[in-house]
Amino acid sequence: MGEFEEGGFQGGGFGEREKHKATCSECGKECEVPFKPTPGREVFCTDCWRKRKPRRF
Ligand SMILES: [Zn+2]
What is the CA(31)–ligand 1 centre distance, in A? Predict the structure, then answer.
């Protein structure tokens, strides 16, 4: 034990989690999203995202 390092899987490169600041279209709260917000497209914070998620299953 001792070779267990954080982010040691997949050799990196794809593990970068860039966060982009955005404003939630639902509540207007500032939030961070793991993708680049597209102008004109709605962005939701985690709370509103969950609320909007359709419960079909
Ligand atoms: Zn929100």
Answer: 8
